[in-house]
Amino acid sequence: MQTKNITAALLAFTLFSMSAMSVAQSSHPKPEKIPPFAADRVLVKFKPGSAASVIGKAHRQAQGQVMRTIPGIGVQVVRVPPGTVPGKVAAYKANPNVQYAEPDYNRVLVVPNEDPGPVLPSGGSVFEEQWYLNNTGQVHNTDQIGIFGIRLTTSGENDADIDAPEGWDISQGLVTTDPAASNTPKIAVLDSGASCVELDLQAKCLEQVNVVKDYVPSQPYDGSDSDILGHGTFVASEAAADTNNNIGIAGVGWNTGFGMFKVCYRESLGGAFVGVCPVSASIDAIMRASTDQYHPNGTLLRSQYHVIPMSYGTSVMRSRRHGRMVWWSWQLPATTVMFPGSILRPALIPSQGSQRLSR
After folding, report:
1. Taking each helix axis from N to C terminus, what angle separates 320-330 and 279-289, rounded to the nearest 10 degrees?
2. Predicted confidence (pLDDT) at residue 118 exceeds the cutoff of 60
3. Is there a domain that residue 236 lies in?
4. Domain boundary among 57, 75, 104
């Protein structure tokens, strides 16, 4: 029951407080100006039973080099000569042994330039500024100065929040001390990485997985496991920062642990930094996060995560593979995938009764 309560609270948090973070501002490059797919990668799935010699021949004919195979679904991430993606996709599709092939589409994480935000005139705790958790109509200072040199204030709307304190009164969840445990809620954050050395995160961070470490963008590569953009650290903190510790902000998951899957790397485009999130990385991370992970000797290392937030997106999901992976993860007992700020076309998701994915 506690796991279900905490999972429901995390769902409410993700949909309520993170949806605006991936919306591009006018001072940043628009997502449609960012290349829609990687210039040198395609995704290829061969038909079951295809011989290794047949697969190798197909790659040689397309000048493709397999970077890796996504576990669980057998989709190969294939590097091809830059600028040849449309032709290579067509070549693979023409091969009778290929089940499907598509570009490695990009999803975009745009970090807006904003002012520091309202500040409590009383100099109160940061929790009071987290109005989306508990809104009492508290007064905040703004960055605007009135005609008499007095800083202007603003106030919230009472109870326009997710009732976090009321939820914590019901349950604060269970601390995950063993990543292999299945009875404690865990969050897999797919984003730009996280600084797990932060005091508010270090005790809650279960693992860091860099899924894009072997990707080479057109700009100098963000090759670290940590978070250069800052977006992933913020998302992870909102979800699972240490709560009631007099440091930083309060995480919605009071006792909830999280794993950080880095699926976005930083590129400079049009004078601004953006996060480029390849679909292949997202699919790979979803597969890893939504399934139990075992040591080669058969020992369970980490059980599946219960919630997978992806706070990045574009106006439409181009990749049929990504949509199907999200649908597939929905069929598992406890995993829910969410991506605020983006829209899935229902046609990309197999329907099951009335279940559909939307905004």
Report:
1. 10
2. no
3. yes
4. 104
